[in-house]
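User: I'm writing a tutorial on reading structure tokens. Could you give me a worked example: one chain, its sequence, then its tokens, then a sentence or two explaining what the tokens reveal?
Assistant: Sure. Here is the example chain.
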Amino acid sequence: MEPERLCFERAGEPLGGLLLRGPARTAPGVVLVPSVHGCNDYVIDVARRLVSQRYNVFVFDLYSRGDKPGDLSSPELIGAAVAGLPDERIALDVAAAGRYLGAHEAVAGEPVAALGFCVGGLYSFLAAAVDGTFAAAVDFYGMIRYRDLSGAKRRQPVDSAEAINAPLLAHFGEGDPWCSGDHVEELKRRLATAGKVHEIYTYPGAGHAFHEFHRPAVYRPVAAAAAWDRSLVFLDYYLHGSHA
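And here are its predicted structure tokens:
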């Protein structure tokens, strides 16, 4: 299937992304939110994998407004780019993308989930706390706590745990410097205390971005396979299964 560029608006501002759809007239939808690197071949490959599992996938363009960062060749530059992403605005954008996808003829009111990687995982989590748009959310190693708050990061991501409106599945690498074990345990504790449906997994021997099979330095095949299989079971249950 070839991606189709689609545009929609939120609060009068243009947003967009790529739709990949399967042969069925309608199917449940997944809003796929990329990392800070944006929509690349890896993300399109992930979208195609989801389409093969009977989903129609909208790859949300984080940089719809034309504010894509330039050089991302070092951890320091990546960190600066992440720090500049406005959390509240993008979470609202992702929720709007979910509503747009849900109303599109490819989905036609069937359930929609959010799934993302790195900052995309973070925004899948935060968007699920905006309203009831999503039937499920999957977070691959989204940050839980920032070292410092700023104008773009006005509150800690974990502070949205009590507001989440969808079952959450989250995956973290045991050696991820962006998501420490203490932060993961805090997320689990706050979700449990708030009575939120959640499944949180930590993978031994894995660091950040362990699912990115196009990057041998970080890819961990066993962790990646386990996390992906769990994600498919989770999505199937909440989008195709008895909760759909």
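What the tokens reveal: The first helix runs from residue 41 to 51. The mean pLDDT is 94.
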